[in-house]
Amino acid sequence: MGEQHDMELTGAEIVWECLIREGVDLVFGYPGGAILPTYDALSKYPQIHHVLPRHEQGASHMADGYARATGKVGVAMATSGPGATNLVTGLATALLDSSPIVCLTGQVPTPVIGYNAFQEADITGITLPITKHNYLVTSVEELAFSIREAFHIARSGRPGPVLIDLPKDVQTASTEFHYPTDEIRLPGYRPTPVAPLQDVDDAAKLIRAAERPVILAGRGVLLSDACDELLEFAERTETPVGLTLLGKGCFPEDHPLCLGMMGMHGAGHANHAVQQADLLLAFGMRFDDRVTGNIATYAPKARKIHVDIDPSEINKNVEVDVGIAGDLRQTLVGLLDGLEPIQHTQWVDRIATWRDESTDRELLNQVLESPELKAAEVIHDLWTLTGGEAITVTDVGQHQMWVAQYYEHSQRHALITSGGMGTMGFGLPAGIGASMGRPDEEVWVVAGDGGFQMTMAELATAMQEKVNVKIALINNGYLGMVRQWQELFYEKRYNATPMLSPDFCALAAAYGVPAVRVETRDQIEPAVRQAQANNDGPFLIEFVVEQHDVVFPMVPAGADLHDMIRRPKNGDSQVKEN
Amino acid sequence: MTDRYTITALVENRPGVLNRVVSIFRRPGLNLDSLTVGRTERADVSRMTMVLEGKKKDAAHVERELRRLIHVIKVEDVNGTPHVLRDMALIKVKATADTRSQILQMCGHYPARVVDVALGSILIEVVGEEPEIDGLAELLKPFGIIEMVRAGVVAMGRADHVLDTHREQSSWAERQVRFSKAS
After folding, report:
1. What residue of A is the nearest CA neighbor of B24?
2. What CA–CA distance (Å, rounded) separates A563 from A259?
3. What tens digit of pLDDT does each residue of A204-247 get?
4. Which string of DSSP letters, residue by residue, matches A430-441?
5. Which of A124, A317, A555, B143 has a CA-to-CA distance to A576 between 20 and 30 Å?
6. How far apart are CA A130 and CA A95, in angstroms?
7. Which residues of A are catalytic?
8. CA of A294 to nearest chain B CA: how many angstroms apart?
9. Which one, of A136, A62, A501, lies nearest residue B19 by Cα?
10. What is the full DSSP assignment across B85-108?
11. More confident residue, A73 or A576
């Protein structure tokens, strides 16, 4: 493979040539009629490892998990029609969490596009609002340019998913191939805006004047590689740091200034701090409704500074005093320049009293009389037994929030979870992708019995590829998060949430996957150790947990952020605190 | 409270752009009252003028989302800046020997001209700001408007208020020129 080729290649060959030049060596894909020419050419490219999922949705989540774990672009491939539409959930999931993936889909030949040909779906039309951008390649001459542009768009600025639709005749047509190397010019695309110095000066003034500042740190901190600068900034200005779900890992959770997660299931003291703050510093986060609660009463006393690489996020959900559209790391470097140390002793002390309240209500500090396992303690034990250093990939629901609360992440890019879209079924396939991207690290998938069953066919993929992924299946016999809402807000009408499941250990055995069931506290550690010792493929632990536990604290949807339903203290009945 | 917001945009002249733009309005269920797309002084760039009936919040949302589109080069809300706004209408109105001269006289007071005359009707072209067109249409109504079509509003800033001064051509546009020369 030379630097530049000048030879006749088919579109199918050009696809692989381009992927290789973009640094791709792993593709998650499912073949079918309209993409077959590309699959036929695959045998010429042994440097590509192709992974066959059991459903195209799995391919898209695997690419996403791989991208989030490695920072590289994940690639998924599917055929036209149903193959392509099965990618939709994965694309939407990647868009909402700014994950760079490129999906390539087969399409019917160009002369019959729009004629309802067999397995034709208008996938560029369907995915238009759920991709950062997409392409319908109508000539083989455009193919290499489109693929190169797609990777550029996926990984630059605020990352996101890009889809490329490849008609069958474009794959079979030939053209002279040389990989373009000239600059990609997209006059409407400015992925990394540079913030005016004046904005940074304005922000610095507010920072110096603040008495009760709080930093809100999101995934943008990780994406702009600004974790070191954030730590320095927080310490120099003695500013507490609240995390979004996707921001976990960007700031050490054992740091005295760390407040943990904010929002609907955030720590009580984090939410109180936000509501009482006189300055919010929003770094690489987007004021999602799960973070803010009722926007009208959100942080009412606070001036707000918002730094985000995507200018459209500024003044979108929350009106701010200073909006800085630019790279966070550069902005923090600018803010730190010449910034004298600032103390906020009184403020930090005040937060400490709220923190004591959280500690009093902490489940793990309470006497656990019931012999039944609590999901929270399972996840807490998983945290201690892995030294807090595993890559944890979650599904969506109660277990996801307990991971956020009880698995303290101090490693960067070590929590992989569907935040914005809240996609059930994400966990197992994303975990497979993450493990394949970082094969030397311990990867745990934590999933509930509901979400796991949405994509559990991917056990076969993990088995076939001998993916070293460990699965902690938290089985409470319910769609637990929905059940929780029914308990709290729908007068305990548990419609459609109880679920009967298969014998998960027997199911795993059918796939050739070793599995154990854990029903008591003393079984947790041996099971986790057994999983850790298993290094030649997936391992599943089914944790049978108490069925009716609830994630606390909880800010009801649309309620004020300080209006939390909190876990009762030992002996108290449930209290609502204002 | 709803208002009319006129938004102009420069976009790359390539397939699919219009769909991406109108999707921004479609998604939250906003009604695009008027939309024009046309060529500019450059073959690779088109200019759109969109009129939105909605709230200020909606207009701000549309602007933000338009700016995110890869093929949208520049977006501006023209409200509040000195702009020339023009719409054009063709109005076919019933006319008899008795009413014809009356209609022609009325048109004389508007930026209008007669482009076709038939035995029972007159076809009038009127170019001007939207209120002028509304005004003439209102006057003609008693005579019987048979059909009417409006082209939609176009807008341009006055004097040195220029929507964009960029001179960069997209890689795609440059390739189209190259391919067309080669074939």
Report:
1. A129
2. 18
3. 999 999 999 999 999 999 999 999 999 999 999 999 999 999 99
4. HHHHHHHHSTTS
5. A317
6. 6
7. 56, 118-119, 168, 481
8. 18
9. A136
10. EEEEEEEEEE--TTTHHHHHHHHT
11. A73
| Tens-digit pLDDT profile for residues A62-112 | 999 999 999 999 999 999 999 999 999 999 999 999 999 999 999 999 999
The amino acid occupying position B92 is K
Number of Cβ within 10 Å of residue A343's Cβ equals: 9
What pLDDT, on the 0 to 100 scale, is given for residue A575? 46
A188 touches chain B (CB under 8 A): yes
Cα separation, A245 vs A261, whole angstroms: 6
Whether the CB-CB separation of A101 and A154 falls below 8 Å is answered with yes
Query: CA–CA separation, A293 vs A557, rounded Å?
Result: 7
Mean confidence (pLDDT) of chain A: 95
Distance of CA A459 to the CA centre of its chain: 21
Of B67, B70, B175, Cβ closest to residue A145: B175
As a whole number of Å, the CA-based R_g of chain A is: 25
Q: Which residue has the tokens 């990780």?
A: A222
Q: Which residues pair with B76 in a beta bridge?
A: B8
Pick among A95, A113, A312 to test the B interface (most B CBs inside 10 A):
A312
* Residue A576 pLDDT greater than 50, yes or no: no
**E strand residue ranges, A64-188:** 74-78, 101-107, 133-136, 162-167, 174-177
CA angle B28, B31, B34 (to 5 degrees): 140
Interface touch B169/A185, C-beta < 8 Å: yes
Residue with tokens 């898209």: A60
- CA dihedral over A209, A212, A218, A221, signed as positive or negative: positive
Amino acid at A356: D
Closest C-alpha to A449, from A577, A352, A561, A540:
A540
Q: Which residue type occupies A23? A: G
Amino acid letter at B3?
D
Whether A6 has a pLDDT exceeding 70, the answer reads no
| A548-574 mean pLDDT | 87
Number of A–B residue contacts, CB under 8 Å = 55
A312 and B65 within 8 Å at the Cβ level: the answer is yes
Strand A415-416, strand A443-448: pairing: unpaired
The pair of three-digit structure tokens given for residue A389, joined into one six-digit string: 């250093």
> Which alpha helices (DSSP H) does B35-88 contain, by range?
56-68
Q: Is B16 left (phi over 0), alpha (psi -120 to 50) or beta?
A: left
Task: Give yes or no for residue A326 having a pLDDT over 60.
Answer: yes
Chain B residues near residue A185 by CB distance under 8 angstroms: 168-171, 174
Q: Is the Cβ–Cβ distance between A94 and A133 less than 8 Å?
A: no
8 A C-beta contact, residue B122 and residue B100? yes
Q: How far apart are CA B46 and CA B68, in angstroms?
A: 17
What type of residue sits at position A92? A
Does residue B114 or residue B177 have the better pLDDT? B114
Q: Tell me the backbone φ, ψ of residue A527, rounded to 5 degrees.
A: -65, -45
A230: nearest Cα among A257, A201, A212: A257
Residues of chain A found within 8 Å of residue B175, distances taken between Cβ atoms = 142, 145
| Residues of chain B neighbouring A310 (CB-CB closer than 8 A) | 68
Model pTM score: 0.96
- Which backbone phi and psi does A76 adopt, to 5 degrees? -125, 150
- Say whether residue A149 is in contact with chain B using an 8 A CB cutoff: yes
- Nearest CB to B168; choose among A129, A136, A187: A187
C-alpha to C-alpha distance for B130 and B127, rounded to whole angstroms: 9
Q: Which two tokens stand for residue A270?
A: 């984090």
